[in-house]
Amino acid sequence: MSVERVCVIGAGAIGSLCAVHLARRVDVSILVRREEHAADLNSHGLAVSGKSNFTSEVSATTDPGELPDFDLGIVATKATQMDDAIAPLHGRFPSAVFMTIQNGIGAEELMASYGDWPLISSVTFMSGIRHGDHHIEYELDTATWLGPYHPGAATLETAEEVGELFVGSGLKAEVLADVRPAQWSKLIFNHAVNSVAAVTDLPHVALYARKERRSDLGWLVEGLIDEGKATATAAGVKLFEDPWEMNVEAVTTGQTATEDYAHVPSMLGDIRAGRRTEIEFISGALVHEADRLGVDVPLSRAMYQLVRARDRSYDD
Questions:
Q1: Of 39, 41, 105, 124, which is least surrounded by CB within 10 A?
Q2: d(Cα 310, Cα 18) in Å, to the nearest integer?
Q3: Helix 217-234 to helix 283-293 angle, to the nearest 10 degrees?
Q4: Distance of CA 315 to the CA centre of its chain
Q5: Is the pLDDT confidence value at 6 over 50?
Q6: Is the dihedral of CA 258, 260, 266, 268 positive or negative?
Q7: Angle at 124 between CA 5 and CA 86, to 5 degrees
Q8: Rounded distance, CA 91 to CA 106, Å?
């Protein structure tokens, strides 16, 4: 496989970061939902500031029928938007490899229900802030972990080529033969941090790791992580990284140990914007797997039910 043309499906923070960097190396088309978004990108290009500073030319459309052929499709929508984004691609682009980059688990199965494309799974902690349709601020430049969805899907060599493309464009990436341990590490981290943020309206700050008093929030976060670890163990998954250590590092290493650092987790961002969250793909996926395996997860179930109730309130 030789990647010369990339299509990024969804131009939120992660999709924009992928598109603006990859467009330095290959032709990039972007599928977006709004006509004004597409027009803005086509007129002005896509600019990035922060960890990177440059502008790239891209082509954008809202019509899947206008997409040119591509070698690699990166599905960067929220998990809740995948059905609508992928359904129009059914039966098309048979020679393309697709890469999922959603929070939680289950995105690959959803992709497979629409076509037999070779699939690459990926897990990312990089983050950005959208300052408009054609400007993304590169906030957190951590690595994206990626690899074949399963043996017989995309090959490891294909995943390595995509990893090299990411690195060559200015992003960080690490290719893994088995992505599931990394997916579970992030699933547990996301479950704890995002559900707490959604319930408390607190960004991810030092409070999430504080355990000086029994009333400190770190105890709840650690309890949620411990339940996730128990579920992973029952599923036969050896975690790639420890989610508690990931939490501590995120709020202390290179940052002040105070509330000055205010990264807003995705579910909190959704709630503040009046959108449904990805709770079903994150906490819901973990709780359902715990039920299947017979693992008791009372804290996780409570947080899942609280955020799920908030989502359902939008129906009213």
A1: 39
A2: 31
A3: 50
A4: 25
A5: yes
A6: positive
A7: 50
A8: 21
| pLDDT average, residue stretch 195-200 | 96
Q: Which residue has the tokens 């349709």?
A: 133
Question: What residues contact 148, with CB distance under 8 A and at least 6 apart?
Answer: 119, 120, 121, 154, 155, 156, 158, 159, 177, 179
Question: For 25-53, what is each residue's pLDDT tens digit?
Answer: 999 999 999 999 999 999 999 999 999 99
Distance CA 143, CA 108 (A): 20
- Are 166 and 126 a contacting pair, CB within 8 Å? no
> pLDDT tens across 48-98, in order?
999 999 999 999 999 999 999 999 999 999 888 898 899 999 889 999 999
Output the six-digit token pair for 53: 């500073």
Q: Which residues contact 113 (CB under 8 A, 6 or more apart)?
A: none
Write down all domains in the chain, each with its CATH number in brackets: 5-175 (3.40.50.720), 180-313 (1.10.1040.10)
